[in-house]
């Protein structure tokens, strides 16, 4: 654990604040008209999963926790946890579903995922920015319906339903943004 000034806090770091560990998801440096500069940090608690905004004075000391990030590949789920494999050592790590939250319906076999470990425990998993998935079910678009970028629902190989343009059909592969869960392009 190392103490740094609040101005040196960076996105993605793990910090200890009020006896709780959290991941910094965003920082903003503010300079009011009068007084000292402030650092506004958005922190997601590792214990509760809740996000809160915290204000630091620019000269406050903050404890930064040492972390380890590993590239793992998604293998399978047993319904309770999700299992990821280290492609070098072939060791398997179980990650609870609560850490994956909205990403569960975008996981496909062998998908590379960056997992954050704090004190030897997996605490967060980051999927790549985009993932390519197969459309397993989609209705036909109505010919001539091109006003205002019309869209239709399509079911992905993972079971997730997204909105896609009319020209996308069953059997196509599409790129999906993992942060928003929305269609990006046809691959």
Compact summary:
This protein is mainly beta and 187 residues long. Helix content is 2%, strand content 55%. It has a six-stranded antiparallel beta sheet with strand order 1-6-2-3-4-5, with no helix packed on it. It has a five-stranded antiparallel beta sheet with strand order 9-8-7-10-11.
Structure description:
With 187 residues, this protein is an all-beta fold. The chain has one helix spanning 97-100; strands at residues 2-5, 14-17, 20-30, 38-45, 51-57, 61-65, 67-77, 81-85, 92-96, 112-118, 121-126, 130-138, 151-156, 161-165, 173-177, 183-186. Strand 3 (20-30) and strand 4 form a beta hairpin. The N and C termini lie far apart (44 Å).
Provide tags for this entry.
single chain; OB fold (Dihydrolipoamide Acetyltransferase, E2P); 3 domains; five-stranded antiparallel beta sheet; SH3 type barrels; mainly beta; 187 residues; 1 helix
